[in-house]
Amino acid sequence: MFIKNFTFSPPFTASIDYVGHNSIDISQRLTGVALALAQLRNFQIKLKALHFNRGVLGVRKLFNMCVETWIKDVTYQIPKVIASVGPMSSLVQFFYGFFELVWQPILQYRKDGRIVRGLQKGAHAFTSSTAVAFMDLTNTFFHGCQGVAEVLVLFISSGTAVQPAVMNVQPRDVRAGFNMAMVIATEDAQKVFSTAIRNVTLEKEAKGYAGALGEVVRQTPKVVIQPAITTTSALSKVVTGARNQLFPDSYREDAMKYKSE
Predict the structure, then answer these.
(1) Which of 24, 57, 83, 237 has the fewest CB atoms within 10 Å around its CB?
(2) Contact at 8 Å (CB) between 142 and 225?
(3) Does the global pTM surpass 0.85?
(4) 22: alpha, beta or left? (left if phi > 0; alpha if psi -120 to 50)
(5) Is 16 helix (H, G, I), strand (E, B) or coil?
(6) pLDDT tens for residues 146-187?
(7) Residues 237, 186, 251, CA angle at the centre, nearest 5°?
(8) What gap in Å lies between CA 142 and CA 146, rounded to an integer?
């Protein structure tokens, strides 16, 4: 097949956010842990428009030409990719706020000499950027602590950690965040203790008091570490609610990304 002309247009942009909860797999060891703790925020890949008008012989050759062109283009996007990994996106946003604080007065002064107006714009940009960055960094810290605690449960105990409730629900404001935090704390405590009591009872019926004692020993690490998982998840909801109340656009964006189950 001879393709005389080929056009790929308009340019395509894929934006990806990834939070690795519920991904820890003890059988995968380091791979599972890395997937669980990894985060991507506003990770964008742009594929530019293509136009071949000299003719291409075969679909496979056309495909290879497109891939080669896009790979070269994506290579130049690597700094942006790195900036989207883990807390780097929040740090970039934090330093962007400092940059705007300095640059806006200079820009406004060059434009019309109103340096006070520039200071106001810079202060507003600085406050917005640093506030969002601080809350995102706080959430990243809580997520990391939760992941570490889940890994400890996997390595120390024979079972898995109880996953916090309402994981995919985004609170609209601080009040909703507190309500979700209370739901998480209550439901997780009930799950942990009811599971532990049920397992101990089953072991007692099967193996007697010796089996029950052994099960108590096995359940102890989970019962001790689980509150850390629950607390970090609950605090994350409160921080997210505060961010969404201050910046409603963040709530609408998250509502589109993370559908409730």
Answers:
(1) 57
(2) no
(3) no
(4) left
(5) strand
(6) 777 777 777 766 555 555 555 567 788 888 888 888 888 888
(7) 20
(8) 6
